[in-house]
């Protein structure tokens, strides 16, 4: 029997991939485990692997342990062959997970694979990619709630632009049959229409249950996910563009000085099509690691040295 092609959910972090994973997991045929990074972490540059060695390395991965999947289940799916292709080994792993959930179709949700699309597309020649895109200014705000990740608006903008650009660059040439862009804002505001479009892309029938909150799927959410995404199991709500009210104008200008081109490419409206000199200086210094709060005063000082006039002051609420 021909296996359905695997699919990969990729994105810049903080773009709603956990929410999308839970929506898909409500489907009667689809199982998407928690993030594992197995493909890149176990990759050793060879398309052939020794089965016993692969299983040993897999069993030692902490993220694999989060699945609560016996390694014996993977061994059973893998069969008796001493050597298999890397694709077969990975397929056996994810197929075992799907079967343990009573599902037939499997996908992978790992945002940072957005920078590994060429490698994954080579390993899985029939794979499909769902690139979930969210307004980078909201992504920057989302990072503010975390103890990890970028610590300034500028560094958030650089990371977001880098990862989203990689997805656009490497995904679009695969064609519409293998690559799909899905906007977080559309998924939240027009959930049924976007999920129907996604199901068509994946080759499955849309099921209304996908629209329900994921309250019954708490076992599919790691404890740390509920800390950083308090409403991750709730039904998505409209009005998700928070940067307009939650981000100071100065920070918006800095973000757009870094990533405005990518925002425009994705048709996100910009407040500052032509960011000022101070914002560009702040963006540059932020990219070097300076916290945004300090960058403002330092940038004004630099501006004063260049022009002989104090740099403009903007609110840094």
Would you give an account of this structure?
The chain is 49% helix and 9% strand. It has 317 residues and is α/β, with parallel strands linked by helices. The termini are far apart. The C terminus is likely disordered.
The string of secondary-structure elements, in order, is: EHEHEHHHEHEHEHHEHHHHHHH
Q: How far apart, in Å, are the first and last alpha carbons?
A: 60 Å
Largest sheet: 5 strands, parallel
The total count of strands amounts to: 7
Helix-and-strand structural type: alpha/beta
Strand order of the largest sheet: 2-5-1-6-7
Number of helices: 16
Determine the mean pLDDT: 86
Helix content: 40-55%
Strand content is: 5-15%
What is the approximate shape?
A: globular
Radius of gyration: 22 Å
* Poorly predicted spans: 293-317
Main features:
alpha/beta, disordered C terminus, 5-stranded parallel β-sheet, two-stranded antiparallel sheet, 317 residues
What's a quick, concise take on this entry?
The protein is 49% helix and 9% strand. By secondary structure, it is α/β, with parallel strands linked by helices.
Chart the SSEs and their pairings.
Blueprint: E1 7-11, H1 17-25, E2 30-31, H2 38-42, E3 48-50, H3 51-59, H4 62-65, H5 71-78, E4 83-85, H6 86-100, E5 105-109, H7 117-123, E6 128-133, H8 136-143, H9 153-171, E7 179-183, H10 184-189, H11 191-202, H12 223-228, H13 243-246, H14 249-265, H15 277-287, H16 292-307
Parallel strand pairs: 1-5, 1-6, 2-5, 6-7
Antiparallel strand pairs: 3-4
Helix pairs in contact: 3-5, 5-6, 8-9, 9-14, 9-15, 14-15, 15-16
